[in-house]
Amino acid sequence: MNRFRSVVIASILAVAGLAVGTPDAAAEAPAVTTSASTAPSRTLADSIEQAELGVVVVLVKDAAGKPVSQGSGFFIDERHVTTNRHVIEDGAQAEVKLKNGRSYAVVGIVAEDTDNDLVLLRINIPRDAGHRPLPVNTAEPRKGEEVYVLGAPRGLEFSVSRGIVSAIRAMRGMTSDRVVQTDASISPGNSGGPLINAAGEVVGVASFIRTDGQNLGFAQGAWHVAALRAGGVQTLAQRQTGRAEEFYQQAQTAYNKKRYADAIPLLVKVVQGRPDHPEAWFQLGYALDEVGKKAEAISAFERHLRNGITGTAAAETLFNIGIISKQTNQTQRAKQSFEEALEHDTSYKNAMLELGMMAWNAQDWDQVVKRYSRLLAIDQSDNAVRAELANAINNIGAGDLRAGQNWTAVRRFQEALDIDPSNNVARLNLGLTAHVLGYGGTVRQMYNELLARDASLAAKLEPFLL
Length: 466
Fold this sequence. Notes:
rod-shaped; Serine Threonine Protein Phosphatase 5, Tetratricopeptide repeat; 13 strands; six-stranded antiparallel barrel; 16 helices; alpha+beta; Thrombin, subunit H
């Protein structure tokens, strides 16, 4: 495969058990041309040239049409292509490209052998497209026999490399049978391409390499290709939807345990297979934020919003965008996000509180009062909000007093005390304003109350006592 997905492994690539798409008709063997003969009947160049007519580049995309992987494959009859299962694993759609440059859509999977990392794809292609099925030799190739790998290593389409069969060996824990080892060059992008003999017959399917040595390539035996039975068509999109739920359950285990780094790649697989998932985009955004990937987190939250969520769910998403924006000094964007959150849910307290704090930092006391009054109306028991609201009203009163609006200031200070009787600064300011207005009795009352609550503030009224 190319840079989108690598088949290179450090030891041995492990695969799981057999799974076949649910058939809508009786399973049938594709029209595979098999042979036991390995004697070349033409020149090597002729064999390669003919074989390439059956080789394809497999281009795999997610549901949004974004490339996710690239591999190789080959026709085993007029409308079926064999490739590695891992080539199409993360795709919701795919197409195959022929040597003549024409491309044709993959209809879906008709057989899947996970033990041996193989799938059989049905292709929407006319008979006169210029392709040619490759003959499949079901006999084990002999050690030392010359073989050739065809495919698109690193995206270099329709390349060929030469080697020999190094061994036929079991790979315990990886496949259900023996694999063909070869020293022919296999690179990412070759996955799913044919390993052919000098007669142009497929003897294996290039699948993986080992990187703890040199020239250690491995192919699944061609006898597994011949054993594939075509059943009903399962589209890649249908397959991805089912797998998305499996990935989501795995992601939830990690997410709930706050193992966000483990949850992220699983959630990415979920949204690749099911972009409209109701929760995955939000959880992906939250997890990315937790590991410090702020920009990516905002992108995930914004993608969640594009799924059409409304109400409290949208408010929560916008609130998270606002918090990240605030943390990254995008103050205007943060404010806008909090305001949009309130448009979706007028009672979303966290957004009100953030807007109130932002107004406080800007000393916009009218906005502070607006936000905190609404918060207190929602929850009368929130004493922290009560105290901040009283402070904001007191600050407005102080501004009125400096502007010479003494009676307006008195009303503000009294309002602050009505909201929060413990606000001693408002009590002091009310005493000072009473002195300006000539109400000595009120000055004495505020002094006595402060004397019992905060002697240092009471001392500030002593010069004005009659």
